[in-house]
Amino acid sequence: MSAISEVFERCRREKRAAFIPFLTAGDPDLETTAALMQAMADGGADLIELGVPFSDPIADGPVIQRASTRALAGGTTLSGILRLVARHRDRLGVPILLFSYFNPIHNRGLESFAEQAAASGVDGLLCVDLPPDESAHQEYIPVMRRYGLDTVFLLAPTSTKDRIRRVAEYSTGFVYYVSRTGITGDQGALPDELVKEVRRLRRKLTQPLAVGFGINTPEQAASIARAADGVVVGSALVKLIEEKTGDDDLLSAVKQRVKELAEGLRR
Question: How many folded domains does the chain comprise?
């Protein structure tokens, strides 16, 4: 059983959903990213989703786009991110899922990337613009399997029965359900039918199902946790980091926000 699967199994035994915070690697710099990951782990994160900054993040809203721009301007590279994970993964005590677009991986070379990622302590990869049918064509799945990396794929409200079947076939660790069509970011109220849709989808999957995109408050996270196996919060935390960068209380503020979000899933 992979480290990511173990997280969901432990949370299942504890009768709660897993809490998965997201942050962009290198925003504001890699040294601070390491400290932020530790603050998130100390605040109650079960799994950390670490975003690889990309110049054309088509699935990300303005908050994460700005974070990617800042990280790239500061010289953040894929190699630097993998070195960061290698230095800090063991002391964190929680798995690391890389969130990336396919281009940086393709440029590195799939085999080379997978070998380096596994050696660094990365536990899995969510390649946001690589659908499951293309992943088979690109040899992505067999290479990731060879190096023991989980492969997480996305489902959305518009996913067809065929897409659901393929994602169920190729996903390991968990399946990521996008709570809405469009980009990440604050969406105010969650869709009324979201909990019902998540429950319907869970019946079709053998893997755990985590929900993200637009979840911002402890109340929203707790609501989704009634139906999902995991809850992902990204833009709200990246925005907090943006607002607090340069302040002495950055780490304590992030830890406290993660604690508030995670505690909502434990009630």
Answer: 1
